[in-house]
Amino acid sequence: MAKKRILSGMRPTGRLHLGNYVGALENWIELQKTYDSYHMVADWHMLTTSLETKNIREDSIEVVIDWLATGLDPEKSPMFVQSHIREHAELHLILSMLVTVARLQRNPTVKEQARDLGLEANMSYGHLGYPVLQAADILLYKADAVPVGEDQAPHVEITRELARRFNFVFQEVFPEPETILTQFARLPGLDGKKMSKSLNNAIYLSDSPEQVSKSMMQAYTDPTRMRKTDPGHPEGCVVFAYHEKFAPETAEQVCADCKAGALGCVDHKRQMAQVVSETLEPIREKRIYFETHRDEVKDIIRAGDEKARTVAVQTMEDVRKAVCLG
Ligand code: TRP
Questions:
Q1: Which of 84, 90, 202, 217 is the most exposed place for a label (fewest CB within 10 A)?
Q2: Ligand 1: which residue has its CA nearest to atom 3?
């Protein structure tokens, strides 16, 4: 039986951090074993929140370098850049006729972004419609499933509605993709908020052991704990969240020691800096290889574009036939 297909994407935000790894990439690497996988750098999506475009090309390459360094395999998972495949824009145009403005305004993720960015009164038409562009990304490859974090689930829901509507209005072209939710809960940033480049609270996959150690020392700690012998509170502690993720086998013991006042925050941070650095070591090494072989990375993207284009062109032929245009 043919393998099921997944498609997922990331915005080209430049170098990736541990939150991107735990929230998405790790899942993709696992899924490429059993799915026919396509992964996309969503560069057009970047325009929804910033018109500063001059670094996007370089940032796209940085993202792909991190994908390769963590183990995404270009043989199994073609990696391509959205704007290189113009068919995304054509399908987006057609899909945009099949959804109401009111439906898009109800999208909780877009609403939250508008609130966070203070954009409620002056959001662009393209920003409001980016879930439709995302639907085009997914449907163009007739993906059966989309691995994403919880915040992106509303967009997959819109994608399913658009697939149904297109199939009903025109002809049966698209499967309705399932959502594959990332299993591990979000990894917090050093300050306890969501790990994010713009909040300056991230540990990057490219960070040296010295940098990891420096960052870890700045992690938010329990303000009620003045002395090491005071009882600690592992629940809600950032360092403990990293512990559970990267050294689960000792988490229980550390939890008990912390609560009993037998393990201080500074010692715990030192331990975790070491564990995280060791986790990052092989990634950092591969990263250095690709950093210094950028032409190879560009070739990988070119090959990914080709594979993606073959599928995209075929789907658009089906679409044009169904719509009786073009
Ligand atoms: N919107 C996603 C994000 O901000 C990125 C993305 C674009 C995506 N197209 C996609 C994710 C298609 C999954 C499928 O993270």
A1: 217
A2: 10
